Amino acid sequence: MGNRDIEGRTVLVTGAFGGIGQALVHALLEAGAREIIAASRQPQPPNDHRIVTATLDVRDQASVAALAEAHAVDILINNSGVNTNTGPLAGSAADHAREEMDANYFGLLNMCWAFAPPMVARGNGVIVNMLSTGALKVLPRMTSYCASKAAAWSLTQGLRAELEDKGIDVIAMFPGATDTRLTAHLRIPKLSPKTVADATITAIRDGVLEQRVTLTS
Ligand SMILES: NC(=O)c1ccc[n+]([C@@H]2O[C@H](COP(=O)([O-])OP(=O)(O)OC[C@H]3O[C@@H](n4cnc5c(N)ncnc54)[C@H](OP(=O)(O)O)[C@@H]3O)[C@@H](O)[C@H]2O)c1
After folding, report:
1. How far is the CA of 173 from the centre of ligand 1 (A)?
2. Which of 105, 106, 145, 174 is catalytic?
3. How many whole angstroms separate alpha carbon 19 and alpha carbon 182?
4. Does the CB atom of residue 125 touch ligand 1 within 6 A?
5. Is 212 in the pocket of ligand 1 (CB under 6 A)?
6. Is the Cβ atom of 113 under 6 angstroms away from ligand 1?
7. Options 1.10.630.10, 2.40.50.140, 3.40.50.720, 3.40.50.960; which CATH number does 10-213 get?
8. What residue spans define the domains of the chain?
9. 105 catalytic, yes or no?
């Protein structure tokens, strides 16, 4: 198997029971993944024998480390995320910014910190970070969410630099507004979660390290 094959691989997806997460799990099953570890703070019963559920809060470093000890993961998809839809002058701005940084940056850091070393030891692996177009350009009323995703983009680039000569690919996905719980309040045209999931599968297979997914792309 090459580094980019999905067939026969063990894949871990965080936020696996959210909108994009469920579409990813479905797309990975279709792509022939051998095992999917579907991680969530509140996992639901699996509907396929190849799905194993895991209760995980990505902010909890000890739980993340224990999960990495328990599973040899070929492809890690860091998909979990929160968006408080907060502007910089809102009364709750600082608390919401911390919440987003905790989940979207420190949670991502915990995952990469725990799951990358076994990949390095094996000499291959793929890490996919579900960022956002907001990592590249601040979106209205989402200042701190975008800041957390920009920080995650910096982490992605740093990781890539450290891991590129060790057989590990670090992929950044930049979806635009997608029709999930995260954007339920937005009355704008949105991507389907399936479009984002399919683009992620294609990026993994085709060796694309940075992929924007928008209604116009
Ligand atoms: N929807 C969009 O427009 C859009 C656009 C660009 C990027 N994204 C990104 O795409 C990813 C998926 O989002 P989505 O749109 O599918 O939203 P979603 O349906 O709300 O799913 C996000 C999932 O993240 C999980 N999560 C949140 N905090 C967590 C934590 N501390 N530990 C573990 N899991 C946690 C939640 O799972 P549990 O509550 O079950 O734990 C939730 O199911 C996110 O990273 C988001 O930022 C979304």
Report:
1. 14
2. 145
3. 8
4. no
5. no
6. no
7. 3.40.50.720
8. 10-213
9. no
Residue 1 has pLDDT above 50, yes or no: no
Taking a C-beta distance cutoff of 8 angstroms, is the pair 15, 21 a contact?
yes
Indicate which residue's Cα is closest to atom 18 of ligand 1.
Answer: 18
CA-nearest residue for atom 7, ligand 1, is: 132
**Per-residue tokens: 91:** 């009364």
**Could you report the per-residue pLDDT of 133-184, keeping only the tens digit for each?**
999 999 989 999 999 999 999 999 999 999 999 999 999 999 999 999 999 9
Ligand 1 contact, 15 CB (< 6 A): yes
**What percent of the chain lies above the pLDDT cut of 70?**
98
